[in-house]
Amino acid sequence: xxxxxxxxxxxxxxxxxxxxxxxxxxxxxxxxxxxxxxxxxxxxxxxxxxxxxxxxxxxxxxxxxxxxxxxxxxxxxxxxxxxxxxxxxxxxxxxxxxxxxxxxxxxxxxxxxxxxxxxxxxxxxxxxxxxxxxxxxxxxxxxxxxxxxxxxxxxxxxxxxxxxxxxxxxxxxxxxxxxxxxxxxxxxxxxxxxxxxxxxxxxxxxxxxxxxxxxxxxxxxxxxxxxxxxxxxxxxxxxxxxxxxxxxxxxxxx
Length: 254
Hints:
Blueprint: E1 4-8, H1 13-24, E2 28-33, H2 36-50, E3 54-58, H3 64-75, E4 83-86, H4 101-129, E5 132-137, H5 147-167, E6 172-177, E7 181-182, H6 186-189, E8 204-205, H7 207-219, E9 224-225, H8 229-240, H9 243-249
Parallel strand pairs: 1-2, 1-4, 2-3, 4-5, 5-6, 6-9, 7-8
């Protein structure tokens, strides 16, 4: 049986790394992002290196018609998707009052509404097929007060916890992955050059390590994956820290 993984935000960063590691495991892939050219380059690399079966699905997930196309692909029982990786996202500067409110609305939709719709589309096919995996890329920012980015990721974690408990009996694992600072293009898209985020070097992780650790946690059926011991410790400390101290910590970095 062909195992197929659909990855959103697959053109770069953690999304591209999920595609590489899933292809290395033998999965067929459906790559979703806005930039078709970058997806085609990645698809060619995966076909060449892993002989992977790769489908490119260029879509802007904030466009209702294009989002519907991805939902329809997930709902296609003739070509079932075994693993859904909800990775698409973008950051906002922490000064909420200075951000354009429509940008904030799009940010909220992409981080919460879009994954919810894609999960809803995927579940009937997964249950009919006898199982599946849903990976929701969240953030350790959800565990500290951190403007709308942390708030949106907290929703994703809460929903993943519930969904993992609800659907495990049907063979479906739902995992929220909560990395810390990862070397990707994320901060560059915010207009923040490397080294200007005020983040110590020891807090940075690399994408291959984050993805490999999260896939191990998914295989164990975990609802929450916090890659690296240093961030597990920071999450624990954040739960014990006074609210004011946690809020000050949340101002660091992007």
